[in-house]
Amino acid sequence: MPFGPWPGTGGGGGGGVTSIAVNGGAPITGAVSLLSPMAVAAGATLRIDNGNAKVLTDAASIVGMDVDLNQSFRVTIDGARSFAIPTVSILAAPKDGEKITVTIEKTNAGDTVTWTSGAGGFMFANSASSFAVTLAQFNSAFAECLAGCLLKVAWEYDADFERWLAVGLASFYPDALP
User: Fold this and answer.
1) Is residue 105 a contact partner of residue 149, using CB atoms and an 8 Å limit?
2) For the chain, is the Cβ count within 10 Å smaller at the N or the C terminus?
3) In terms of Cα–Cα distance, which of 53, 66, 70 is closest to 150?
């Protein structure tokens, strides 16, 4: 039974991977069962986290966050930037509870960031809590983050809101490394 479809394999019905090799061994072909601790309905598409951080291209509008292919994104910005709504290339929409992390490195103290809102976009909490991030908290941390600082923002997709909710924020300074 094929699973997928994966990009470049024909997509849609009939495409998909029909064999896999484990640890470089001989390919396993035919019916393939994947045992996973993740709850996946019969016939559903299984996303496998590839663990790679995708480096995004710095531009006025930062695009290229395909959440079906990566869960971690990195960009070094130089100026006023806006993050576009993340895309999906395999499934119709992000999965409820899916998590992504965006790491931003500032080039200049005056760099600014905005996040596209609306369906599929980004949303900050209305009030501060122990696990949510407000826009004011993000803006404050971003303003304090000087050139060379790394700012990490964690997002979790909520299907009811149809938005990526800001759930974590941290800043790091490379010169503070031991």
Assistant:
1) yes
2) C
3) 53
